[in-house]
Design a protein that fits this description.
- By secondary structure, the protein is α/β, with parallel strands linked by helices.
- The protein folds into 2 domains: 61 residues; 189 residues, Alpha-Beta Barrel (TIM Barrel).
- Helices cover 52% and strands 11% of the residues.
- Strands 1, 2, 3, 6, 7 and 8 form a 6-stranded parallel β-sheet that branches.
- Helix 4 packs across helix 6 and helix 8 runs parallel beside helix 10.
- The longest helix has 43 residues.
- The protein is elongated and about 120 Å long.
- The N and C termini lie far apart (112 Å).
- The structure holds zinc ion.
- Zinc ion binds next to loops.
C-alpha cells in the first residue's frame, strides 16, 4: 500500500479513537453530574431517592397528563353510557365505611356520602381525599327533634355542616333530608305545620340543594342480605340518571357494592359523584 494512504488510515484511526475516548469521558461526566444532583436534592430535602432538581416538574407533568387522560376516557365512556349511577350512602360514617372505600378505590368509582355525627373524622377526611362527595344528611338523625320545628332542623343542619367544614375545609351545600323529602314520619312531630313543604322551599332559599333518590336498595327496609340489596339495585337501574340509596352502616349493603359495580361495568353504566350540577331527583312532598 502507498505510504500516504497508510498514513491517512492511521490518522483516521487515531482521530476516531480520540473521539470515542472523548465521548466516553463526556458520558461519564454527565452521569457523575446527574447523580451528584440527585444526592444533593436528597440531602437537602431529606425525601425520596428519586428527588432531583427537575423531578418534581416531571412528576407533576406526568400526574397532570395521567389525570387528563383519565378525564378524557371517562367523558368518552359517559357519552356512550346506557346510564349514569350515583351511588349514595346515608347515615355514616360507620364501621363498614373504610371497607366500602377500599372497594370504591379498587374500581376507581366516586360516590357520595350523606354524613351524620357518627364515626371518626378520619373516615370523612378519607372520603374527601379520595375524591368522593361529602354531603350533609343530619347531625342527630332524630326525627322527633329535627322535624318538630324549622329552627331545630336548621340548628341540626348547621352542626353537621360545621363538622364537615372543620374536616374538609369545604362548606357543603348538598343535603338529603332524613327519610327523604317525601317522608311522612315528620307528620308525627311537626304539629300539623306541614314542615316538609316549608323545609323544601326554605333550604333552597338558603342556598342548599336537596337530593332524594330514584333507586332504593331497600337496605333500611326489607332487604337484609347482600343478595337482595344487589338484586334490588341492578333490577331498578334504568337508562338515564340513577341516584341509588344505600346505607354504609349496613354490612350487607356494603358487601353488595363490589358486585353492583361489576354489573354496572359489564352493562355500560358509568359512575359519578353528586355535584351541584347533578340531577336532584326530587320526590313528591307528602307533608
Ligand atoms: Zn338517614
Amino acid at each position: 500500500m502507498d505510504m500516504r494512504v497508510r498514513k491517512r488510515h492511521l490518522h483516521i484511526f487515531i482521530l476516531s479513537a480520540l473521539l470515542t475516548v472523548f465521548g466516553v469521558v463526556l458520558f461519564v461526566l454527565i452521569g457523575i453530574l446527574m447523580s451528584a444532583d440527585i444526592v444533593y436534592g436528597q440531602s437537602k430535602t431529606g425525601v425520596e431517592v428519586s428527588e432531583c432538581s427537575f423531578c418534581p416538574e416531571i412528576e407533576e407533568f406526568a400526574k397532570k397528563e395521567d389525570e387528563e387522560i383519565r378525564a378524557a376516557e371517562h367523558a368518552e365512556k359517559l357519552a356512550k353510557a346506557t346510564g349514569v349511577v350515583y351511588l349514595t350512602y346515608d347515615d355514616g360514617p360507620g364501621d363498614y365505611t373504610n371497607a366500602l372505600l377500599d372497594v370504591l378505590k379498587k374500581y376507581d368509582v366516586k360516590a357520595t356520602f350523606f354524613v351524620t355525627s357518627r364515626g371518626a373524622d378520619d373516615v370523612i377526611r378519607r372520603e374527601y381525599d379520595e375524591g368522593h362527595t361529602v354531603a350533609l344528611h343530619t347531625w342527630s338523625h332524630n326525627y322527633a327533634y329535627v322535624y318538630s320545628s324549622m329552627a331545630n332542623y336548621f340548628a341540626d343542619l348547621q352542626q353537621i355542616s360545621d363538622r364537615v367544614k372543620n374536616i374538609t375545609g369545604v362548606e357543603s351545600k348538598l343535603i338529603r333530608f332524613p327519610g327523604g323529602s317525601s317522608n311522612t314520619v315528620s307528620t308525627r312531630y311537626d304539629g300539623r305545620t306541614r314542615i316538609m313543604s316549608k323545609l323544601t322551599r326554605e333550604v333552597e332559599a338558603r342556598g342548599y340543594q336537596y337530593f332524594d333518590w330514584n333507586v332504593d336498595s331497600d337496605d333500611a327496609g326489607r332487604a337484609n342480605s347482600s343478595d337482595v340489596v344487589y338484586a334490588n339495585v341492578i333490577n331498578r337501574l334504568k337508562p338515564g340518571p340513577n341516584v341509588v340509596l344505600q346505607h354504609d352502616i349496613k354490612p350487607y349493603s356494603v358487601e353488595a357494592v363490589e358486585r353492583i359495580i361489576q354489573w354496572c361495568n359489564d352493562n355500560n353504566y358509568v359512575f359519578e359523584p353528586l355535584t351541584s350540577d347533578s340531577p336532584t331527583v326530587h320526590h313528591g312532598v307528602n307533608n
